[in-house]
Amino acid sequence: MNPTLPFPADYRERARLLGTSTLYEASHLPTAVDSAIRPVWDGAFVAGPAYPLECAPGDNLALHLAMERVPRGSVLVVGTGSFIAGYWGEVLTVAAEAAGVIGLVIDGGVRDIVALRRRQFPVFARGISVKGTVKASVASLGSPFNFNGAWVTQGDLVVADEDGVVILPQGEAARILAEGQARADKESVMMDAISGGRTTLELMNLTQWRTHS
Predict the structure, then answer these.
(1) How far is CA 146 from CA 4, 14, 31, 81, 167, in A?
(2) What is the mean pLDDT of the chain?
(3) pLDDT tens column, 59-115
């Protein structure tokens, strides 16, 4: 285990191999985030402890303040009330890299997509927008909140890939990774059986449904 996190030391590699779909199924918890939050460039992936914050609609001051407070190695999880504007772009990406932030999940909008892709900084957002933001207020920094279907607390394990975003409670993350691996191993055996001529109906004990066709 990582001495500073309740996750296995190789959690990033395991999360990448398992993927968000398997981790969600293994969690048996409401860990999935709204599917409208998507990677802004193909192949983006991130896994790391969450740093939650909330911005007022059209106001990104909280993001700038977070750069002085966020623990290195964190993933920013940003609520905006689903307001689409350019909360984040190349300048904040450079600032985030300097602060040790490894990725961003935001339910609002971002911009400077070419630069984000070039820098290979993982960003998952609800939309893309050229509209600017003001800097006048802060809703919350580091406080728990319900992020589009999944509760997020500082230190929870965020995993995001091309299938979606899941937020695993930090006390459950090790279990979910282990159960995810068991599920993946079981599916590997099943796929070998399918390649050998078995059917999914047989392997899933669904043959009674043949009589309904």
Answers:
(1) 25, 26, 11, 11, 11
(2) 94
(3) 999 999 999 999 999 999 999 999 999 999 999 999 999 999 999 999 999 999 999
Contact in structure between 118 and 41 (CB atoms under 8 Å): no
pLDDT tens for residues 122-137?
999 999 999 999 999 9
Please check whether residue 135 is in contact with residue 61, taking contact to mean a CB–CB distance below 8 angstroms: yes
> Which residue in this structure is represented by tokens 């339910």?
107
Other Cβ atoms less than 10 A from the Cβ of 171: the count is 11
Residue type, 184: A
Alpha-carbon Rg for the chain in angstroms: 19
CB contact at 8 A, 53 and 66 = yes
SS3 at position 178: helix
SS3 12: helix
Strands 164-168 and 157-161: antiparallel
Whether residue 159 contacts residue 12, with contact meaning beta carbons closer than 8 Å, is answered with no
